[in-house]
Amino acid sequence: MNKFLTTLKNIWSIEELRRRILNTLLIIVIFRIGSHVVLPGVDVAKLKDLTAGNGLLGLLDTLVGGAFKNTSIMALGIMPYISASIAIQLLTLALPYFSKMQKEGESGRKKLNQITRWLTIPIVAAQGFTYLQTTIPTQAIMVSQGFFYISSVFLLIAGTMFCVWLGERMTEKGVGNGISMLIMIGIVSRFPGAILGEARSRGTSGLLFFCT
User: Fold this and answer.
1) Of 62, 114, 150, 184, whose CB has the highest number of CB atoms within 10 Å?
2) How far apart are CA 68 and CA 168, in angstroms?
């Protein structure tokens, strides 16, 4: 234990590492706050009643740290960007244009990253519209449905691109790979709620189950 505390003290004494750790923590806080900013026009209380017990929704919600079920502006999280990255990687294998770009070094990598960002936008638009249609009952929408769908798709695009920006800033000025960190944070943030929920449903035995 003493060695562990000494290691932490040594890490904290290095200015560069201290700054990167603080930047990482700040980005995590911003990301978690964003996951609770609800899309305008949604009756959250009614939505929770109408979607209670939806197992698929709960599974998808785990990947984005609760933002999916909260109908947050970050409901889709970083996942559309991951889909775009996979698509670009496949194109580098299938099309000479992208393969050549990949071999151009740093300049080629920047071009591919830019294309990935642009590709993320239509992916978010498609996934966002499907998300709104399938997970938000019309009874929970408090404004005109047409206006709600159009404005919410734009907000979901902005939310995902903001997540991408946060991930890139974490990679550049924080600790570790930012995109991977955001995915991990989204999953880990669901653990306390899951443990408490299980403890409530099982009583004391439920808490003992998680502790053993």
Assistant:
1) 62
2) 22
Domain residue spans of the chain: 34-81+134-211
Q: C-alpha 201: how far from its chain's center?
A: 28
Q: Are 166 and 31 a contacting pair, CB within 8 Å?
A: yes
For the stretch 26-77, pLDDT in tens is 999 998 888 888 888 887 777 766 555 555 455 555 555 555 566 888 888 8
CB–CB of 156/5 below 8 Å? no
- CB count in 10 Å sphere of residue 161: 16
Q: How far apart are CA 148 and CA 143, in angstroms?
A: 6
Please tell me the distance from the alpha carbon of residue 116 to that of residue 102, in angstroms, as a whole number: 13
Q: With 0-12 CB in 10 A as exposed, 13-18 as middle and 19+ as buried, what is 47?
A: buried
Alpha helices in 35-105 (DSSP H): 44-51, 55-63, 79-94, 96-102
pLDDT one-digit tens code per residue, 130-180: 888 887 878 888 888 889 999 999 999 999 999 999 999 999 888 888 888
